[in-house]
């Protein structure tokens, strides 16, 4: 098997864990099945979060440069000065050679001092230009990193779940890292080389128009090398970025699901899955190295041709055209000084392509998701909820067909009413709760909060109007007080303690080493699941929304913990329109109205006593629960 065939075979193994049951069942490397699966899986991963095209990326970067207009202008001026000084030096060295031939020692000493001075000034200008380019790039990159995180956090929850946190993480980690290296090393080189090449060509032609022969003979060879190499490496870099995102997702999935992996003995399968994803990313990098080796071999040809032609042309200019040795020396220095920049231009553009592949992924998130944009200006007037013809489906099965999870539904919830959603797993309860909360847009139908259609509402107003507490609660790293103030910045310590007291959390909070100043979250004091839920409910009290949706917010605890959380949930729900996805029927018993769901439909509706007396689905569930 050839080197490229081996690389293609390995690159084809970008598979997800569901593509095999055991490691030995991985499709044979290079087989049509493996290659087709790899293309399909990488294509799916590439389309999860948006990727900008080159034109959109260029517009975005120009906008960033305009935002830093003063720094950009200073950088261009300094880079131009450095390039002008570098282009002047060969001419001065040629003049020095002429003075040596004329044996004019006094003038030679003065010219030598001038060359040293200009050389020192050129070094200072180059260093300053490099620093300016790097500083400007890092400033823009820092802003982009913040924007990517901001936009990613603004994504709907279901979009992030479908895309996978690994893809988002790779964009703020791998992609930022690649772009940062380019900003520190590649972009300053490209800027300075570009100015130097242009001005050096001007200097060559000003010495003698015959030097255009060298340009005409050599430059096309570099252009051909670049045209052959850059498109091939650019495509590989894009695939490599996607593979890196898939690798990050695979690692996160394996680590996050480690208890299940250990429980079912899936270590070998998960290891094989991560190994395949890692090998895919590594092999794509190896393919780039192969291309680099081939293009370097090709570049040696125009370099040798340039040196040979400069010697021949120099001889002709001196002996046939009457040019001075100093002039020819300056011309030869120009030629040889161009060889390195021309090669660097190709490889700098190569690195720029690698960074551009990452940049398009970052810009895709930034420009495609606008957190400041709202569908409209409608604002909820009260705490009522209305659903008209609402249904939802996911298109995530193997054939890409829709999987209906919620069938057409009309529902009205009056201000202050408490609704409980009851049913078996997969009945559509969580989907309906997310739609009511406004975190999930239904495929069909209208959702109104206080008369405001969410499709035309002010998003900030909706977020302040409705809040959702799910079964999975995150405790952010920092002090407990700062974690609580996420709901209301500037809340006083008395207000924090009052909220904690209402959800029954003051006892354990006061027992913490530093009370509200105790560090919690990652690398801090670890809160139990019950305590984390109490913190989440305290945040609700601080936010004070009109509508509260609790998606099995008390489902994880045992009987004692569940009772504590039920009391906390009742305190948080007091005076609000409340929707509860009831894992425990004791919660449903206290609701004003119960919706019993099955197969995406509401099959029964009414208060607890009425449904029990009816003897239907809810009555059977209640009987089993009571028993």
UniProtKB/TrEMBL annotation:
This is ABC bifunctional lipid A exporter. GO terms for cellular component: plasma membrane. Gene3D superfamilies: ABC transporter type 1, transmembrane domain, P-loop containing nucleotide triphosphate hydrolases. Residues 73-354 form the ABC transmembrane type-1 domain. GO terms for molecular function: ABC-type oligopeptide transporter activity; ATP binding; ATP hydrolysis activity. The chain crosses the membrane at residues 69-89, 109-131, 186-204, 210-230, 325-349. Keywords: ATP-binding, Cell inner membrane, Cell membrane, Membrane, Nucleotide-binding, Transmembrane, Transmembrane helix, Transport. It comes from the Bacteria. It is found in: Cell membrane. PANTHER family: ATP-BINDING CASSETTE SUB-FAMILY B MEMBER 10, MITOCHONDRIAL (PTHR43394:SF1), ATP-DEPENDENT PERMEASE MDL1, MITOCHONDRIAL (PTHR43394). Residues 385-624 form the ABC transporter domain. It comes from Brachybacterium nesterenkovii. It is a multi-pass membrane protein.
